[in-house]
Design goal:
This is guanylate kinase. The chain has 10 helices and 11 strands. It is an alpha/beta fold and 294 residues long.
Length: 294
């Protein structure tokens, strides 16, 4: 009896083995470990269609996946309540989460501290850093640059914490082109009207910038509602209910990955191909044992 599993992508290293079971000889070509190359990322996503800079992001973020727990991305319009939800999350899980402090070229708002709320930087310095590939994602809004540096993410992961990124839709689209593979959460405001009231109450926006934020919010809400873009959409009609929804997801999908005595990188970076293949081999063995393969 000959049973061969050999149609796996060539981007993976294959190991062939042979064993006998119930007088049947079984040949298996199995994948014990993923094999990363410059043309595919850790999860087998091809990068041939990407630019040189995007391929660099594959390589750099691959190392982050290997050596740190899986990140958490929070996205939502300005004024949706992301910061308040994150404050609660960090207060409840102070030793499990770390915030990736973004860079920006805008001026600090009252009460903002450099290095805590943002890394405030000049446009010239930030453009140069972006050109040198030092950022995972970056975007421009109202003539100001925003972005997440690789160093900021690595600093959090080096402490064994879950790195939390607070980024916009442009940033999410860029992160999806990397190998970071975070959990994606979108915070949905109650309505555009409520969002406008919140932004006006801040007193930090000109009428022009406020209208730009509202226009951007409409696009972000459309992206947030599109199936498959996010793992969870939190409707922030009530802060307590919104946090309960966020907390339930975090407890189920994020924090639980760091238990059972397994290192974060081992459990968070394991590709699903292993589970699927393991299940397939187990079923094949079951079929052999029951004489279903004649």
């Amino acid at each position: 009896m000959f049973f061969n599993i050999s149609n796996f992508p060539t981007r993976f290293r294959m190991i062939e083995c042979m064993f006998c079971f119930n007088n049947c000889t079984v040949f298996l070509s199995i994948l014990p470990q993923p094999f990363y190359t410059h043309t595919c990322d850790y999860y087998g996503r091809g990068s041939r269609g990407l630019s040189h800079k995007q391929r660099e992001k594959f390589s750099d973020t691959h190392n982050m996946v290997q050596h740190g727990p899986r990140s958490l991305v929070l996205c939502g319009p300005s004024g949706s309540g992301k910061s308040t939800l994150l404050q609660r999350l960090f207060a409840e899980f102070p030793h499990k989460f770390g915030f990736s402090v973004s860079h920006t070229t805008r001026n600090p708002r009252p009460g903002e501290v450099n290095g805590k709320h943002y890394h405030f930087i000049t446009k010239e310095a930030m453009r140069e850093a972006i050109a040198h590939g030092e950022f995972i994602e970056s975007a421009e809004f109202c003539k100001n640059l925003y972005g997440t540096s690789k160093a900021a993410v690595q600093a959090v992961m080096s402490e064994g914490k879950v790195c939390v990124l607070d980024i916009d839709v442009q940033g999410v689209k860029q992160v999806k082109q990397t190998d970071l593979n975070p959990h994606y959460i979108f915070v949905m405001p109650p309505s555009i009207e409520e969002l406008e009231c919140r932004l006006r109450d801040r007193g930090t926006e000109t009428e022009e910038s406020l209208q730009k934020r509202l226009d951007a919010a409409r696009e972000e809400i459309e992206f947030g509602n599109a199936p498959g873009n996010f793992d969870l959409v939190v409707e922030n009609n009530s802060l307590d209910k919104a946090y309960a929804s966020l907390r339930e997801f975090v407890a189920r999908e994020v924090v639980k990955d760091k238990v059972d005595g397994e290192s974060p990188s081992a459990s968070w970076a394991r590709p699903t191909v292993h589970r699927g293949m393991g299940s397939f081999i187990y079923q094949a063995m079951s079929w052999l044992g029951r004489g279903r393969i004649q």
